[in-house]
Amino acid sequence: MEHFLGGDWEITPAGGVTGKAFFARHGGKELFLKRNSSPFLAMLSAEGIVPKLVWTKRLENGDVISAQHWMNGRELAPGEMESGRVARLMGKIHSSNPLLSMLKRLGKQPFLPSMMLNEIYSRIGMLYTHPDVAAAVRFLETQLPSVPESQFVVCHGDVNHHNWLLSDEDELFLIDWDGAMIADPAMDIGTLLFGYVEREKWTDWLLECGYDLTPSFFRRMKWYAVAQMLLSIEWNRDKSRFHEMNRMIAALHGLMLDDHNLFGNGETKQDAFKK
């Protein structure tokens, strides 16, 4: 890659799991480079969801390198995830027809809840012997009929706080779109709400995002939150990150005990008892 950019550029790995990302610096210029990123990146840049795309170029070996402006900034802290800015950007993504059309042109098909359950079956392996994991899988199986397959939008798929970038110019971005998919918006929203937002703030947060807190949406959010947590537990086990795996199993246990069923008027039991 040094030969491609020129010998005056200093190129260093940017970290990450895939090893495909790099920083490039030269003469006061800074770029974020990524190998074989999706063509979807150009549309995300045009929509202002990721830092500006500068160029894409093809190497002799067929690899495609994308370059984005390097944005000085930081990832969001967990406590900042309940801000209205996060909700509004998430709503912008989910309501974007250009983004949805682009993913369809790239051949993406809707990721159905049954497909997600099959992925869990194929990956959890020996983890199924853990009682909390087994209980979570049974929950997904029994609740699958209540998760519809009719409302699909562009989903990021991994909206944890590490992927939210706040620049020094106070611009908010959602980065790392390698797992982008067409799916139920409850997949992204469930992770955000169950993971970061205080329960009493859910209704207002969802309104900022463009959704109503209904019993149906609550069930969908919980279904996807449990499913994604199972996949994260397996990912950490595969990477031998056992401390994080055990922490997430404890969180899964708490999520499965969550009994805040919604009444028809959108109130939780907790809200109702406050009256």
TrEMBL record:
GO molecular function ontology, one term from the record: transferase activity
Keywords attached to this entry: Transferase
SUPFAM superfamilies the record matches: Protein kinase-like (PK-like)
Taxonomy, superkingdom: Bacteria
Keyword S-adenosyl-L-methionine: no
Domain Aminoglycoside phosphotransferase residue range list: 14-202
Protein's UniProt name: Phosphotransferase
